[in-house]
C-alpha cells in the first residue's frame, strides 16, 4: 500500500510527557509501525494468519527486539515464543505477560500486538532504569490466537496448558486445502513437537494480558484503560424447530405449522432474557438455517445457534436454562416441536479480586480512574486462566472497532496502558 505510515499517525497527537520512567512512546510507535508492514493489505489492514509466513516473520522481528533488550529466547513445539528476563531469584515462578501477533484476514494493527509490545516495553523501561525484578519476567507471543485459518483458535495458549486434542487438530484443513500438520511444517514446526508441547505450569506464578477493548465502554467513559472484571465463557445451543412444510398458496393460515414463525418469535424473546439475569450476560442468534428454504414453501424446519456468554458460570447457565424453556414454550404455543443440544460450553474466567485491587492501585498511581468492565470475547488469558491466576487490562478502542483496518487505539492510551502494566507487575513481583 502506497504512503503507508502508521508511525506518523500514532505520533502526531502523542503527548511526549507520557514518556517517563523508562517507557518510550516513540519506540512503541515505531515497533507498531514495523509490524504493520508485515502482511499489509491494500485496504490498510493486516493479514497474518496463524502458522503463516507472515506470523513467523513477525515473531522473528519481535525476537530481535527481545534479544536487544537482554531477554533469553525459547520457543516451544507450538511456536510460542518466550523472552525471559531472569529475576534476582530465578528459582521463583515467573510473571508472564504478552499476547499474540496473528490477525484475522484484513484485520487491524493493535489486536494482540499491543499486548506483546506492552510487555516488552516494560522490560525496556527496566533496562533503562537499571531495575531487576525479584521474580523472572517473561514476554510471550502465543501462536494462532485468532484461529482464522483453521476455524479453532487460541492454539498456542491451549498447547502451553496441555489442552489440545491432537485427533481434532490433525483433521483441520485451511481454505486452500492445506492440512494443519503441513502448515506447521511450512514454518519449521512438526506435529510430534506440537503434540508433545505443554509447559510445567508451576514455573508460572501468574499471567497478565494487555488488549484493546474491542468495545465502546472506555470511550464512553473517556478512560484510557480499564480493568477486565472477567472473561466470558461461551455456551452454544443448537436449537431446531420442527413444523410441517407445505405449499405457500394452498395452506390456510389457520392450519399452518410454520417452523420459521416459531423461530422468529424465539429470536425476538432471546434478546430480552440475559438482562433479567445478569448485567454482564449476553445472548446472540447469529446463524439460522431454514429448510427447505423455498420462496413458495412454508418452512418445515429451522436450525439456529444461540451464543450465550457471561463472566459468571451460574448466571450464564441460568440464561441457558431460560433460553431452552422459552424455545419449548414457543414451540408448544405455536403447534410445532423443538429439540436442542449444547455444542459448546467453556467455563468463564472471573478475575481474582486481589488482582483487580492491585490493578486499581496501579491505575490510581497514574491518576487514572479505575473502571471495571467484562470481556465478552475470548483471549489467551481465558485459556491460561483455567489453570493459573490471570489479570487483564483493556486499552480504549475508537468506536469499538476491531478485526478491521479501522481498528485504532491512540498512542497516548497505549502508553498509559504500559505504565499501568509496569506498576502492576512491580506490585505483584513482591516476594
TrEMBL record:
Chain sites annotated for binding Zn(2+) 2: 111, 146, 403
EC number assigned by the record: 3.5.3.9
Domain Peptidase M20 dimerisation: start-end pairs: 233-330
CDD domains: M20_bAS
Annotated GO MF terms: allantoate deiminase activity; metal ion binding
Cofactor(s) this protein requires: Zn(2+)
InterPro entries per record: Amidase_Cbmase, Bact_exopeptidase_dim_dom, Peptidase_M20, Peptidase_M20_dimer
Main enzyme class: hydrolase
Cofactor note: Binds 2 Zn(2+) ions per subunit.
Keywords: Hydrolase, Metal-binding, Zinc
Binding, Zn(2+) 1: 100, 111, 211
NCBIfam families, alphabetized: hydantase, PRK09290.1-5
Family, per entry: Belongs to the peptidase M20 family.
Name listed for the protein in its UniProt record: Allantoate deiminase
Amino acid at each position: 500500500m502506497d504512503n503507508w505510515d502508521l508511525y506518523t499517525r500514532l505520533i502526531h497527537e502523542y503527548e511526549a510527557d507520557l514518556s517517563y520512567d523508562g517507557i518510550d512512546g516513540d519506540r512503541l510507535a515505531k515497533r507498531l509501525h514495523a509490524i504493520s508492514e508485515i502482511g499489509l493489505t491494500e485496504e490498510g489492514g493486516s493479514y497474518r494468519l496463524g502458522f503463516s509466513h507472515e506470523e513467523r516473520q513477525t515473531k522473528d522481528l519481535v525476537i530481535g527486539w527481545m534479544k536487544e533488550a537482554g531477554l533469553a529466547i525459547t520457543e516451544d513445539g507450538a511456536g510460542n515464543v518466550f523472552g525471559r528476563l531472569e529475576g534476582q531469584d530465578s528459582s521463583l515462578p515467573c510473571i508472564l505477560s504478552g499476547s499474540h501477533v496473528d490477525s484475522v484476514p484484513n484485520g487491524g494493527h493493535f489486536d494482540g500486538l499491543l499486548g506483546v509490545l506492552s510487555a516488552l516495553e516494560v522490560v525496556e523501561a527496566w533496562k533503562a532504569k537499571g531495575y531487576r525484578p525479584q521474580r523472572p519476567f517473561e514476554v510471550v507471543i502465543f501462536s494462532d490466537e485468532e484461529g482464522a485459518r483453521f476455524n479453532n483458535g487460541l492454539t498456542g495458549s491451549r498447547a502451553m496448558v496441555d489442552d489440545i486434542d491432537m485427533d481434532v487438530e490433525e483433521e483441520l484443513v485451511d481454505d486452500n486445502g492445506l492440512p494443519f500438520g503441513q502448515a506447521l511444517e511450512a514454518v519449521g514446526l512438526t506435529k510430534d513437537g506440537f503434540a508433545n508441547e505443554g509447559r510445567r505450569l508451576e514455573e508460572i506464578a501468574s499471567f497478565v494480558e494487555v488488549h484493546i477493548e474491542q468495545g465502546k465502554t472506555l470511550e464512553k467513559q473517556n478512560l484510557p484503560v480499564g480493568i477486565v472484571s472477567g472473561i466470558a465463557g461461551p455456551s452454544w445451543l443448537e436449537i431446531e424447530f420442527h413444523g410441517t412444510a407445505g405449499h405457500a398458496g394452498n395452506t390456510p393460515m389457520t392450519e399452518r405449522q410454520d417452523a420459521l414463525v416459531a423461530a422468529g418469535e424465539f429470536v425476538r424473546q432471546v434478546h430480552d432474557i440475559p438482562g433479567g439475569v445478569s448485567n454482564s450476560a449476553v445472548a446472540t442468534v447469529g446463524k439460522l438455517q431454514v429448510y427447505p428454504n423455498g420462496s413458495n414453501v412454508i418452512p418445515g424446519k429451522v436450525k439456529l445457534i444461540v451464543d450465550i456468554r457471561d463472566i459468571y458460570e451460574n448466571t450464564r447457565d441460568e440464561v441457558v436454562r431460560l433460553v431452552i424453556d422459552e424455545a419449548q414454550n414457543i414451540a408448544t404455543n405455536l403447534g410445532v416441536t423443538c429439540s436442542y443440544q449444547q455444542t459448546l460450553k467453556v467455563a468463564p474466567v472471573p478475575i481474582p479480586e486481589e488482582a483487580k485491587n492491585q490493578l486499581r492501585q496501579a491505575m490510581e498511581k497514574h491518576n487514572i480512574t479505575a473502571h471495571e468492565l467484562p470481556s465478552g470475547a475470548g483471549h489467551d488469558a481465558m485459556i491460561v486462566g483455567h489453570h493459573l491466576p490471570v489479570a487483564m487490562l483493556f486499552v480504549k478502542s475508537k468506536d469499538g472497532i476491531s478485526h478491521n483496518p479501522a481498528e485504532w487505539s491512540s498512542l497516548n492510551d497505549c502508553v498509559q496502558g504500559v505504565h499501568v502494566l509496569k506498576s502492576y507487575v512491580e506490585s505483584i513481583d513482591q516476594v
